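Supplementary Text 2. Reproducibility record for the structural model of the 374-residue chain.

All settings were left at their defaults, and a single model was retained for analysis rather than an ensemble. We include the record here because the model underlies the residue-level annotations in Supplementary Table 4.
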Amino acid sequence: MSLRSDPLDELSIPDGTTVEEHDLVTDSDVIVGAQSTVEFGVRGNNVIAGERVTFGGHIEAEEDCRLDLWSDVDGDVLVGQDAYLGERVHVSGRLMVSGDLDIGDDVEIDEGFEANGWIVIRNPMPTIVFLFVYLSQLLRIGEEEAARSLVDEMLDGSEADPAIVPRNAHVSDDAWRVSTPATIGDDCRLHGNVRAEEIDVGANNEVFGSLRARGDIVVGEGTRIHGDVTTRNGTVVLEADAEVLGDVSCDDLRFHEDATADGTMRASGEMTMVRAETRRPTDEEADDADEDATADDEDAPADDAAVDGSPSDGPDEPTPDADGQSADDGADAGEREDDATGDGERTEPTADASSESVRTERKRRDGPGTTSGA
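Retained model, structure tokens:
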């Protein structure tokens, strides 16, 4: 969780949170702001509640539990490690602590308490004051590494984001009412209507109630809302495979073509449908396309050379003529004839000489006993 000026400025539900029977169950920490009401029990890693917080059920903390002054718990409190109870805290059930117990004045535990570690009766100082004093003492004695390790542990001690209920919130099976934005993670199962300034619901959730906000509302992929989705001045976004079992009313509406709504969809402004094929490619897909294009460009010159059939560099091979002899052989034969005639110049035969040689050649072909006409 980021370090901000007001860490309790929104309703934040981490991934995998469910409401089972009358308990809010999560694997991460649970932080409840001052003067809030949670009408069911809470089960989480660390449970921290501010001043005048009311719980309507049991509290089960796998690690530490801290209840500030004037808090009230209508049930038992089971703590896996240490517990810190401020003054005038009331527990209607039994308090069971596996570690140390730091308890304030005028604390009422109707069915008694049990602690396996040290029990100190005093007024525990607020958590932020304790951390400030502890860090200041570490820095004063020069233990900067220890102070840095403490800060890193506080900020990065839990891999999962905590479940945060802001100040003056009211959470029950009927409704989750906050005056801040609300964010719901993935794979959650919640009961009750959600009322907030803005609502952002993740993917693959099941919300048994309606969503109402003054600003924007986003319903993630594969999420089912068992109720209406209504915003006063904002935009409603329905992702792919989102399902609304009710009406949708908003200023602007943007919905995927695979999203469905059983009721009426009303938008006073623009209504936009997003098709699946118009989605933008991811960075990995774009990189793969660039690599394929580069590989095709590199293979293109080699393919062109193979198609053209151009010979490689080297000595020219002689080309045979129609009689099966190469041009070079014919040239050599001509040179030998020139040598045989002598050093004199060759004279071209006349027409009569040519005719006589033709007749002589015909007689040779006809053979003896045949007569050729002139």
